[in-house]
Amino acid sequence: MISFETALLDRSPTILGATAVVALLMAWRFGRAPERFLASLLLAIVASDLLLGMPDSGRAAYDRFRIGITVRDALVLVGVGAVALRANRLYPLVMAGAALVAALAHLMRWLELFQGHFSYLVLTTAPGIVIVAAFLTGLALHIRRERLSGPYPAWRETALPPAIADSHKLA
Amino acid sequence: MADILKQTALLDALTDKQREVIALVSEGMTSKEIARKLGISESAVNQRIEVTRQRLGGMSRAQIARIYRQTSTLVITIPTSNSLTGKSIQLQHGAEPEQHSSPEGAEALLASASNGTGVLQPSTFSPQPLAPDSTVKRLAVIVAVAFGLLASAVLVLAAAQALNAIAPK
């Protein structure tokens, strides 16, 4: 039986990669702008794992603070956070929360607030699983909602620029 | 109001398929996107739009979209001093106006509903925004989710550590 650490480090990148590709295809077919952007972001995360040599680094990647992974996770937080604040959706809020956990873990590691290798591993890897799970669940709920109620706005009206929001008013 | 009812009557004369296409046009989708969404050809979409335009007296696509948005649902928001979003009533074509949050009739509400310039604000689409609608509230939810996940992770790690401690070596 494989250990939790092995499952998290060695198997999850492959599973997440395959899931990201499937998610991207479904988002482009059934989703709107927020879904497509988030699916592209998921694929970019997987691609960056390959670039940063994550599958090869394995456990060594979590023995010390790594700037590449930290910058990657910070960019993910910015991207997901922007969609969470502007999109007329709920699931990006969960994704942004998970991305915030990963970013905080990097910050705490950099400040040497905790030294545990396993803790750092869990706090920076598990949010990726939460992000993917939240995206897939949100995408399924979005498809269901559109089928039941018809199309609905992708972006919150209060988040739109005034020129576009004003065009909705009666003359 | 009379103009809106007249325009609604014109839209009511459309077939279901034409209304389906116009609903997506009002959302800002192109003919290609509508065709893909409905599983029909782009030329069929353009044909339905063209027939609708002729029925509505040669109006442009943008005008039809605007009329559809205005006539699908009217939401009148009454600003109140102690709420962020105000109280609202919804008027739907053909239905009796409901009286929410006020003992006055719908006419009195209509008269006082404007924001000083007589501007009514229709909703673009019938579903209301998915709560929360404020940026600050959404930020608070994100932080709350993060702390929830962090607390769960700490519990899991503590449990793993405890199991490790009691496991026979």
Description:
The complex is a heterodimer of chains A (171) and B (169). Chain A has helices at 4-30, 33-51, 54-57, 67-86, 91-110, 117-149, 162-166. Chain A has seven helices and no strands. In chain A, 37% of the residues are buried. Chain A is mainly alpha-helical and 171 residues long. In chain A, helix 4 (67-86) packs antiparallel against helix 5 and helix 5 (91-110) runs antiparallel to helix 6 (117-149). The longest helix of chain A has 33 residues, at 117-149. Chain A has one domain (4-154). Chain B folds into three domains: 2-71, Orthogonal Bundle (Arc Repressor Mutant, subunit A), CATH 1.10.10; 73-113, no CATH class; 130-169. The model of chain B is unreliable at 80-126 (pLDDT under 50). Helices cover 56% and strands 6% of the residues of chain B. Chain B is elongated. Chain B has a two-stranded antiparallel sheet with strand order 1-2. Chain B has 169 residues and is mainly alpha-helical. In chain B, helix 1 crosses helix 5 (61-72) and helix 3 packs across helix 4.
Topology:
The complex is a heterodimer of chains A (about 170) and B (about 170).
Chain A lengths: L3 H27 L2 H19 L2 H4 L9 H20 L4 H20 L6 H33 L12 H5 L5
Chain B lengths: L1 H11 L3 H10 L5 H8 L3 H14 L5 H12 L1 E5 L8 E5 L14 H8 L21 H32 L3
Antiparallel strand pairs in B: 1-2
Most strands sheet of chain A: none
SSE order of chain A in H/E notation? Answer: HHHHHHH
Q: Indicate the radius of gyration of chain A in whole angstroms.
A: 18 Å
Low-confidence stretches of chain B: 80-126
Task: Provide the helix percentage of chain B.
Answer: 55-70%
Rounded average pLDDT of chain B: 69
Using the alpha-carbon principal axes, give the shape of chain B.
elongated
Number of strands of chain A: 0
Instruction: Give the percentage of residues in beta strands of chain B.
Output: 5-15%
> Helix tally of chain B?
7
> Please, how many domains of chain B?
3
The largest contact between protein chains, plus residue counts on each side, is: A-B, 35 and 33 residues
Listing every helix as H and every strand as E from the N terminus to the C terminus, the arrangement of chain B reads HHHHHEEHH
- Going by CATH, the homologous superfamily of the largest domain in chain B would be Winged helix-like DNA-binding domain superfamily/Winged helix DNA-binding domain
Assembly form of the protein = heterodimer
Question: Structural class, from helix and strand content of chain B?
Answer: mainly alpha
* Count of extended strands of chain B: 2
